[in-house]
Amino acid sequence: MVCFFKDKMAFDDCLRDIKVVQNEGVKENEGLGAVFGETICELYEEYINSDDFKISEISRLKRNKMQDDYITKYINLAKYLVDYFSQ
To answer: What's the rounded Cα separation, in Å, for the pair 73 and 58?
Structure first.
């Protein structure tokens, strides 16, 4: 097995995560099962179209005193990020 991790701790964390994902209880969980069946692009699209992004993330930017121009660019970049990297 080729190791792409910078240190043993990161590798151990990855192994722990794999064991969790392969756990039968986790596999049988309907909510997690739906997530495991989707691609990263699908999950990202769901997030971009969610209230969590539209309300919470944009509110966070406003709380951090980001200008409206910046927020508009941020939203556009987020919406077209997958398309950009798919080309």
So the answer is: 12
Q: pLDDT tens across 21-39, in order?
A: 777 777 677 777 677 778 8
Euclidean distance between CA atoms 44 and 75, whole angstroms: 13
**Region label for 66, one of left (φ > 0), alpha (ψ between -120 and 50) or beta (otherwise):** beta
Query: DSSP alpha helices (H): ranges in 1-87?
Result: 8-22, 24-28, 30-36, 40-48, 51, 58-63, 68-86
- What does R_g of the chain's alpha carbons equal in angstroms? 18
Residue 1, pLDDT score = 44
pLDDT of residue 3: 53
Residue 7 gets which letter from DSSP?
Answer: S
